Amino acid sequence: YYLIKPKLIDAGIKLGRDGFFDYLRTNDLLVKPKRSYTKTTNSKHWLKKHPNLLKDNQNQPFMPEQVLVADITYVKSGEGTHYLSLVTDAYSRHIMGYHLSEDMRACSVVKALKMVQSNRCYDHTAIHHSDRGLQYCSELYQEALQAYKIVPSMTDGYDCYQNALAERINGILKYEFLLYECNTFNELKVLIKESIHIYNERRPHLSLNMLTPNQVHRNIGYNSQRKSQILAVSDFS
């Protein structure tokens, strides 16, 4: 509604947000929620788990690339089930790294982290927050974090609310963009690339004052404003 409102005004159409959604609902144009669920986390292993550095609102970011959240979600094509690894900047909601694979091996998942490193705009220390899945605890993934000077943080157990932002990004991609099943893995790969581009560059977020993730990620003025707001809330608390 935010994006098309100027066009409605130019066309002389008086239609508020609620009326707009009523119109979509009447014409069966709303995205229907999906309720299927597949667990992709295996946290029952002997590898080292790292403490939750974001617990109790610790280390809340006030500029981009201070906290990165990661998760793996399943996506399907006509060829079967595939796995999408995502790493998102917690401050700007910008998806900084992703990789689609046909397995959940650490060597596949770490490719999303490598993309993050190549896309970074800032050189300060970052926290990488994830669940306690086998891939994130693996030696390969932890060595990559260490090489990139990124500090690991993990949920206390299998609790999706402790990595809620990553889960939210998964949902936006799957239920707003990846609406139809592709025939092949390669078709799905192209669709995901296009969807993430649109998500980063064109989709405004209410939590970002209706700016896009890319605008916030690169806008220092906005970052300074948000830092002041967060510090003010901290002082009040």
CATH C-level class of the largest domain? Alpha Beta
* Largest sheet, strands/sense/barrel: 5 strands, mixed
Termini separation: 35 Å
Report the total helices: 9
Q: What's the structural domain tally?
A: 2
Helix content: 40-55%
* Widest sheet: strand ordering: 3-2-1-4-5
Uncertain spans, ≥5 residues at pLDDT below 50?
230-237
Structure description:
By secondary structure, the protein is α/β, with parallel strands linked by helices. It has 2 domains: 1-30, no CATH class; 55-236, Nucleotidyltransferase, domain 5. 41% of the residues lie in helices and 16% in strands. The chain contains 9 helices and 5 strands; from the N terminus they run ααβββαβααβαααα. It has helices at residues 5-10, 17-26, 106-119, 134-137, 139-147, 164-177, 185-202, 213-218, 220-236; strands at 67-77, 80-89, 95-101, 126-130, 150-154. It has a 5-stranded mixed beta sheet with strand order 3-2-1-4-5, with helices on both faces. Strand 1 and strand 2 form a beta hairpin. Helix 3 runs parallel beside helix 5. The chain starts with a helix and ends with a helix.
